[in-house]
Amino acid sequence: MINITILASGSGSNAENIVNYFSNSDKFNVTAILSNKKDAYVHERAERLGIPHSSFSKADMENGALLKTLKELNTDYVILAGFLLKVSDDILETYPMKIINIHPALLPLYGGKGMYGMKVHEAVVANKEKKSGITIHLIDNNYDQGTTIFQATVDVLPTDTPEDVAHKVHELEYKYFPSVIEKYALGEITVK
Fold first, then answer.
1. Which of 7, 59, 116, 183 has a beta carbon 3.0–4.6 Å from 188's, enabling a disulfide?
2. Could you give the 3-state DSSP secondary structure of residue 118?
3. With b meaning 16 or more CB within 10 Å and e meaning fewer, what string describes 15-49?
4. Where are the alpha helices (DSSP H) in 23-161?
5. Is the preceding peptide bond at 108 cis, omega within 30 degrees of 0?
6. Residues labelled catalytic
7. What average pLDDT does the structure give for the chain?
8. Which residues lie across from 34 on neighbouring strands?
């Protein structure tokens, strides 16, 4: 059984999608959803889905408490689903090539510190991009610069608002994120 632990900071729609995708799997187990925000809606989703969940502070990540929790959960892969903090070096070192993030743009475009959610879609529209999409990637110690596992694109029309782009990108996230996690963890997708 491959144990995945999800880290999330917000609403948790991708976390819920991942839990539902693996709910009947005989190869994957979602051990918990952990959030750096006590009031994040992801906790309500986890409660409804029957998934263990808890909060942690930035200090917990920096002092090793979060790493201890991940180890206690027998985590094999850490999945970042709308997680906004930079992952600490001790977690990166413990889970090399096993921390997967999704970004709502075609990296290396529109990545980096502070580029998340609607800020990304607003930038895409403001710059009159013709395409946007998702990047699923392994993380390293720089924001949004890790090795790309998978990308998918959508057309951005001249009439699209940031909300229109967000809707299109969310559809890609829901369609691809869980299956790419599965294929990568099973060795069906390899990266250099």
1. 183
2. helix
3. bbbbbebbeeeeebebbbbbbbbeebbbbebbeeb
4. 42-49, 58-62, 65-72, 89-94, 118-126
5. yes
6. 103
7. 96
8. 7, 54
